[in-house]
Amino acid sequence: MPEHSKQSAALHRRDVLKAGSGLAASALVPAALTTTRAEAATSSTLVIAAPATPQSLDSNFDVSLGTFEAVAALYDNLLEFKKIPDPKVPGASREDIADHPNLPAGLAIQGKLAQSFELDPAGRFIRFQLRPGVKSNWGNELTADDVKWTWDRKFGLKAIGGFYLSTLGLEKPEGVKVEGKYTVSINLDHPNPLLAKLQPNLYAPIYDSKKCKEVATADDPWARKFIENNSAGFGPYRLEQLQRGQQAVFKARQDYYLGKPAMETVIFREVPTSATRAALLQGGAVDIAQYLQPLEIVRLRQQPGVKIDSVDASFMIWMELNAKVAPFDNVKVRQAMNFAFPQEQVLKTVFQGLAQPLHGCMPNIYAGYTDKFWKYNYDPAMAKSLLKEAGFPSGFKTSLAYNAGDPVQEPIAILYQTALRQIGVELELKKVPAATFYNAVSERKQPMIFYVDSPWCPDVGYSMTLYFNSQSFIDYSNYKNDEVDKLLRDTARTADQAARLEMMTKAQEIVMSEAPWVFIAFPGYHFAHRANLQGFTYYTANNIRFQDFSRAA
Amino acid sequence: MSTAVASRGPAGVGAADPAGSRWLRRLRFFAAVLRQRPTFAIGYAIVAVVIVTALLAPWIVPYGPMVADPTVYLLPPGRGHLLGTDGTGMDILSRVLYAPRVDLAIAGIGTLVSASIGSCIGAIVGYYEGQRSWRRAVSASVMRSADVLQAFPVFVFAIALVAVFGQSVRSIVVAIAFVNAPIYLRLMRTQVLSIRRLRYVEAAYVAGASDLSILARHVIPNAMAPVLAQLSVNIGWAVLLTAGLSFVGAGVVAPTPEWGSMIAMGFQNVVTGQWWPSVFPGIALGVTVFGFALVGASVEVLADPVRRRILSGSLG
What we know:
The complex is a heterodimer.
Chain A: H1 3-28, H2 36-41, E1 45-50, H3 65-74, E2 79-81, E3 83-85, E4 93-95, E5 109-111, E6 114-119, E7 125-130, H4 144-157, H5 159-168, E8 176-178, E9 183-187, H6 209-215, H7 224-229, E10 237-243, E11 247-252, E12 265-270, H8 274-283, E13 288-289, H9 294-301, E14 306-311, E15 316-321, H10 331-339, H11 343-349, E16 356-357, H12 380-389, E17 397-403, H13 409-421, E18 426-432, H14 434-443, E19 448-453, H15 460-468, H16 482-491, H17 497-514, E20 517-522, E21 525-530, E22 533-534, E23 537-538, E24 550-551
Parallel strand pairs in A: 1-12, 1-13, 4-23, 17-18, 17-19
Antiparallel strand pairs in A: 2-5, 3-4, 6-7, 7-9, 8-9, 10-11, 11-12, 13-21, 14-21, 15-19, 15-20, 16-20, 22-24
Chain B: H1 2-8, H2 11-16, H3 18-36, H4 38-60, H5 92-128, H6 134-151, H7 154-165, H8 169-195, H9 199-206, H10 211-223, H11 225-247, H12 259-271, H13 276-303, H14 305-314
Helix pairs in contact in B: 1-3, 3-4, 4-5, 4-13, 5-6, 5-8, 5-11, 5-13, 6-8, 7-8, 8-10, 8-11, 9-10, 11-12, 11-13, 12-13
């Protein structure tokens, strides 16, 4: 057979196979989705294939994937970061989270529901002047009472809201003061550098208190049941329909104070398998396919009509080394585990070159990050030597738990298992169902367990405190170092950014040296969409906001 | 069958060595059956190849079945790796050849355990059924319990059992044994119900033999034929169940070479064009289950005196 004939035959076979795969994938999705090709092509309808619909719409309790997008569509915050063009992806934008010493609060931050704000340079109070005439999806006007009720709800319900209260050091409801119909302030007993920075946080939205009070009952004074299934916010969309496990539909609000979004209808469909989401995007049945696997992203890049925007992101993936479980209570063992990790090969194979190496212990897109303390390039000889020094010349046996719902974790674990055999460490792999994985992480009993996370507040002190303060509820590696704890405490109590950066550099040096994690990667954020969709903006919460999108003519 | 075959066997051999002659006659009859029904021959050949592969795997695989080599990840089938490599660079041929060690071991042990337990309980239940005593109540309650067990969808039930006992090979064996035991219980009970009234059983009873002795010496040995026929069908089915459990993440722990687990690890790659990590183990699984099904079909024919007589007649 002539060479060109062979090629065409091979291509033909491949095409047939791909078509078959696509067909099989299509068969896996609800029949209703096959009707969305027309919807996706409609200029004002946005169709999204997501791994899950929102479990709840209450940001005080739910952190499921679909909830992030829903909260961002239904609610607005008092402040937001200004947007800048993404330096790597033409046409994409991102939040300007850099330090700007010449700007108020040292941040490129601006009003949203608040038309202006005043921040105490010492970080003891912040005063907001609200935008008059802003209406909720129930037609109620935004007032200072709504801000006050929103913070009171955090005090009343604790949970995630309680975390924000403790992060700010806001100890009493009286700290939030209504100073006029449109004026409200937050007042702290101690200076806090995050007072302004936390306001744009996805999970710090403002509720329509009038509506919430209407639906509240004696048993449910904070309208939990209502907010779980409905919205009472000042955001650009209202909820039209929520069928958990199937789809959520959002409608643009005509009376949104910043103007009606271009996408009038957003259909947020649950498609659990990433391969199916990719096939639907390729076929034009959806505009956006979320959370695809690296290989799918690489393949989709070659497809006409599909575009992948890959931006630097706050996501990190690592393995917790439980400092309270032998032998990981020994620093030398933890260091050895890092020297034995084939990071470069994992990035090349599992992440298909789409990720960056995790050479630090916080997001590399945040001010204050440094990789100068990185020393764990793959070196099995060094790992073996460290194990010998630690008293394990023949290695040891341990286990690594991974999330069955995250397809990258299993191959990483297998590559690591093979690599560890070279230094005598026998690694047993434990597959944990996605539904119970977070419990396994938060119990902090596994010797080693994967974790993927991103600190949403773009701050060095916030990021480091989350993972390395021994009092933090997500210090899942049980890491404890008194000096690091003191540095984190001091960083949280001063607004002097230069001093904070100095302290956090020291903290990063200690943490990197003591290696409470096996450092894996910054996976990045890869936004897969139809080429005619424009307006993608990256947020540190790693979610999309429907109001950003429009369709190219 | 023995009469018909004996009449065609060489009389001289039988006279010199009756036992050897009997085996030789059986072997010839078996060979004739395989010639008459080539699908049975294919089944036996497949099962034989799978078993031999499982036994010889450590010596014939080109690479370690659990050695990940990221420098050769997702290589298509070719010279270095005949069936290609998976997403972590593990050789698929080596893993496909190694997998029956796990699959057959789990399926075989699980099926044997279920057959042993199910048959024993079935024999006791069948033996005492209909008697006026507390034993009758126990028999009835055992049968109703079996009804309840069999009312559950087998796969869902197996997943639930693995979830309860934890993810391990032992749990899968327990799950297989548990879901299959009622099948053997019913088979054995039915057989015992018809055998217990036969004269030789009554004679043993009159001679003063205990119930346990009658069951062990006279009833169970004569009721085993359908149980044995069911075994090979069940092993194939148990291989499929093992693979199914691994596919949904409730089976063996990665990266243990096991067909279902391999399919699960590779199926996402099919859409991106890398079909080989899941297709080859899928083919191996399919062929093996097919082989056991054919063997099961042949045992079913050979164990049934009527069908065996018809087959003997057709062999001429």
